[in-house]
């Protein structure tokens, strides 16, 4: 079968195709062409009209321009832009200084909190405490005593900690006089308020306390006295943070 030779309309390289072909691709510039035949023309080569094939992915054809180095740079730069944008969008959800989250404010004062914020705080704390202690305390159960004794708002310009401290009582299941009262501190970091709610920023709370052993087998988290808790949890912030106690 005789090959027809014609110049690539894009780069001038030689293109080869047969009479039967309806399209062809340039080996050099990788462009694809549709082949039309005009039988009025006398020269065989002139009878074939090549027009660039329109494919749905034509937008990517610019990658065929330039050498490997240029293509690599375009891909790396595009990748970096995506990574930087993605990082900033995710960071923006947590960072009040981000351009993506201008409306979120770090809570630094008691007056920043509303009654519904306190309920959110208590509810999340209660869930955390029961997740951490249930099953671990074995025969000891929390008899419903769960009260926020104090709340600390500890902050500087960039970071804050909301530390509510709960007083809970655990009793041995068959012996009400075997009772243990514990102070349990929950540490919520970088609590922000947005659209008048702190609800979306409370998912990283941690119980910050030693394990307190009721006896050799059963234990829960907490401090038996408040002063030890203050010295171990709150005092370490005194140097670098503003501490508000309520
Ligand atoms: Zn070409």
Description of the structure:
The protein has 246 residues and is of the alpha+beta class. The chain folds into three domains: 4-64; 66-102, no CATH class; 105-245, no CATH class. Helices cover 24% and strands 33% of the residues. It has helices at 44-47, 68-94, 115-133, 226-234, and strands spanning 4-7, 14-17, 23-25, 32-37, 48-52, 105-106, 140-155, 160-172, 175-189, 192-193, 206-207, 211-213, 219-221, 242-245. The chain has a five-stranded antiparallel β-sheet, sandwiched between helices. A hairpin with a 4-residue loop joins β7 and β8 (160-172). The radius of gyration is 35 Å and the shape is elongated. The protein binds zinc ion. The site of zinc ion (ZN) has 8 residues, from loops.
Give the tags.
246 residues, alpha+beta, 3 domains, 3-stranded antiparallel beta sheet, 4 helices, elongated, binds zinc ion
What are the SSEs and their pairings?
Elements: E1 4-7, E2 14-17, E3 23-25, E4 32-37, H1 44-47, E5 48-52, H2 68-94, E6 105-106, H3 115-133, E7 140-155, E8 160-172, E9 175-189, E10 192-193, E11 206-207, E12 211-213, E13 219-221, H4 226-234, E14 242-245
Antiparallel strand pairs: 1-2, 3-4, 4-5, 6-10, 7-8, 7-14, 8-9, 9-11, 12-13
The structure holds zinc ion.
Zinc ion (ZN) binds at residues 8, 10-11, 13, 26, 28-29, 31.
Shape: elongated
| Count of the domains | 3
Bound molecules: zinc ion
Distance between the termini: 93 Å
Structural class by helix and strand composition:
alpha+beta
């Amino acid at each position: 079968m005789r090959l027809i030779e014609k110049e690539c309309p894009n780069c001038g390289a030689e293109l080869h195709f047969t009479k039967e072909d309806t399209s062809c691709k340039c080996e050099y510039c990788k462009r694809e062409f549709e082949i039309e035949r005009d039988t009025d023309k006398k020269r065989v080569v002139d009878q074939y009209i090549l027009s660039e094939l329109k494919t749905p992915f034509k937008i990517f054809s610019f990658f065929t321009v330039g050498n490997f180095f240029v293509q690599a740079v375009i891909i790396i730069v595009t990748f970096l832009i995506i990574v930087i944008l993605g990082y900033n969008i995710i960071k923006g959800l947590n960072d009040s200084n981000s351009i993506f989250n201008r409306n979120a404010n770090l809570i630094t004062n008691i007056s920043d909190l509303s009654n519904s914020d306190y309920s959110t705080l208590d509810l999340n704390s209660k869930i955390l405490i029961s997740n951490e202690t249930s099953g671990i305390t074995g025969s000891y159960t929390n008899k419903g005593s769960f009260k926020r004794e104090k709340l600390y708002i500890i902050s500087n310009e960039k970071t804050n900690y909301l530390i509510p401290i709960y007083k809970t009582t655990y009793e041995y299941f068959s012996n009400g006089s075997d009772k243990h009262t514990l102070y349990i501190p929950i540490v919520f970091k970088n609590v922000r308020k947005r659209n008048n709610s702190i609800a979306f920023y409370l998912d990283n709370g941690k119980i910050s306390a030693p394990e307190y052993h009721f006896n050799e087998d059963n234990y829960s988290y907490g401090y038996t006295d408040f002063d030890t808790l203050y010295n171990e949890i709150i005092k370490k912030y005194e140097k670098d943070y503003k501490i508000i106690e309520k």
